[in-house]
Amino acid sequence: MASPPSPASSASSVGSRRSLDADADVDADRPQTLPDLVNHFVASKRSLNTQTILWRANDIVTSARELLEENAILSAKNASIRNIVDEQMDALEAVRRGIDVIEADVQNEFKQLLHDLDTSFSGLQSTLAVLRDTPIESVLQPPNTSQKHLFDFIDSSTVTNLKDSLRACIDRYNEARTALDDSKDNFDTALDNLYSSIQNVPLTPLTTSHPSPIPSLYHHLEGHAKEAAQAFQSLVQHYDLCVTALRHTEGGAAAATKATGDEPVPSGDQHAPPPEPISEEERQEMLSVLAKDALEVDDVVSEIRERGSEMSFLLSQVDNHITQLRNEDSALGSILKMITQVTAEVKSHMVTTRSFHAHWLEDTHPNLLSGIEEWESQRDFYERFDLAYAELLVEISSRRRRHDKAKRKAEEAQKELDRLHAEDERAREQFALTQGDFLPLDIWPGLRDPPRRYEVRPVSRIPEQEDGEDQRAEEDVEAEVRSIPQLERNVVERALTRVKQRM
């Protein structure tokens, strides 16, 4: 309705009142009979029943005003809680990433140490394989003994014990890592549940582009209430105009009372005084306005009802939005409880992480480093053992060579001594033949003595023997000579090659 009806409330102001619809197609010149006035009065009185809609409209506006306040509180509260949730989730994610960083650092270093350990162990195994494949020359072993190799002369239990120790260390690390993985899985499950719950929180968009609809809805409700009140006021004015017209018409009051059972009285005064007299011209003008307004009563009533229905619909929208805010508030409250629980559990996750890191620093890392150093030390020792054996073969060959050279020198010296002894013996015999008959024997006790015999022979390292053990001493000397074996040439050459390769 473009403009609400404004029927006159008194005869003196009839000329200044506007009609319910100035453009209505009404025949203002048709005379209004008493039955017409009574019908208009009955219709106007019935239209005032729309006052219940105004009461309902007032209740709606009051309720909407309360919901508007609750909307402001819930919107601010939900926005604040969402900010808190975001901050808490960022903090939890930071802790989770920190656990990954610690694990990644330890795992990278662990893999590197394992690689170094495997490299060291492989090198040691290669060296031990050389020892297994290097036989002891048979001439160095006692007769009738089984073939031995360099590996038979080492204590392999040290390798086995260290290997078992390192395997146990790695097992302890894997146990600590498994405990950390379990903790991470539980942490991830808790975070996933949180994110899932957060995603399921009813979202009430409150942004610059999507503000809360309630202020706008409340504004529309107030507008509808105001328009309905103005429309109802026009109905009241029309009713008062009907009463005035009846009271200025002979028999009008009685006819209206007979039709409605109530005496027609103005709406604002139940004990109204008799109406002031008006001229016939004023009366006709009043009846003309009344006739025009009467045509708009149904439209005004419909408008009031439509506005009442629209207000109920708008209130339902307000209720729906508030319900959404309440649901969001309840869900966010549950999220905060979940975050509190997860935050409490984070302490145990951090304890597990610290325990894993401490186990790495205090057990796994030092033991692996020690194992690598021990593998390298053992490898170096066994490589030196292999090299020493090669150098032993070279030394045996050198000793044999020097022994043979000394023996040749001794044999040459012995031949020279034997020659000199024979020459001395012949010279003495010649002297005895030539001068022996002329010299008495007592002139020099050694005149007839044979020449002294000198011998070159090996000296035993065994302490001097008692009388009667010379034969045993000679046997010992022979044994010592035989203790320097004669190695084959190719054996010595291979040994020299190994020595040169490792120099």
Automatic annotation (TrEMBL):
Residues 1-31, 253-282, 455-480 are annotated as: Disordered. The keyword Hydrolase does not apply. Keywords: Autophagy, Coiled coil, Cytoplasm, Membrane. Its main location: cytoplasm. The keyword S-adenosyl-L-methionine does not apply. GO terms for biological process: autophagosome assembly; autophagy of mitochondrion; piecemeal microautophagy of the nucleus. One of its GO terms (cellular component) is Atg1/ULK1 kinase complex. InterPro entries: Atg17, ATG17-like_dom. One of its GO terms (molecular function) is molecular adaptor activity. Residues 396-430 form a coiled coil. Residues 47-439 form the Autophagy protein ATG17-like domain. Residues 465-478 have a biased composition (Acidic residues). It holds the Pfam family ATG17_like. It is a peripheral membrane protein. Signal peptide: none annotated. It is found in: Cytoplasm; Preautophagosomal structure membrane. Autophagy-specific protein that functions in response to autophagy-inducing signals as a scaffold to recruit other ATG proteins to organize preautophagosomal structure (PAS) formation. Modulates the timing and magnitude of the autophagy response, such as the size of the sequestering vesicles. Plays particularly a role in pexophagy and nucleophagy. Belongs to the ATG17 family. This is Autophagy-related protein 17. The lineage of its organism: Eukaryota, Fungi, Dikarya, Ascomycota, Pezizomycotina.
